[in-house]
Amino acid sequence: MQYPNTFASAVSMDPDPFSGDPSVLADPTLRKLNSPIWLARQKPDVSLFAATSAQDRFSPVSNITALQQAVQWPTTMAPPLVLAEGGHNWGTWQRMFPTVFPWLSDHLDDARVVAGTTKTTTKIGR
Asked: Alpha-carbon distance 29 to 20, whole Å?
């Protein structure tokens, strides 16, 4: 959401707490400016998809609900995917893949040659 002209679509699978980790970003202002909730309130023109498990103690459903409440047009958010079982692990994330990746693929432009380069393609979100 920080770079909507470059990344217009985003998927978050079992996102970490949106308040940020003080051991990673000690500056509270910087944590706030990197918070998905704060970023959503800036109304970037992006499409979002979030998924978690009802059993994930690191990524509670309440995080995704708070993000849904912060989203305002032109930001859009797909209905969240909440798996009934699974924790914060690869097994849970793999079960999200069949839903998450088709959604993301539907929100990306086709690959194309980038002007000024040769044989290089890029996929930019719609």
From this structure: 11
Number of domains in the chain: 1
Please report whether residue 60 resides in a domain. yes
Mean pLDDT by 10 residues, the chain (126 residues): 90 86 89 93 95 93 94 96 94 95 89 64 52
State the residue range of the domain holding 112.
9-122
CA distance 65 to 61: 6
CA dihedral 37→38→40→45, nearest 10 degrees, is -150
Residue 2 lies in a domain: no
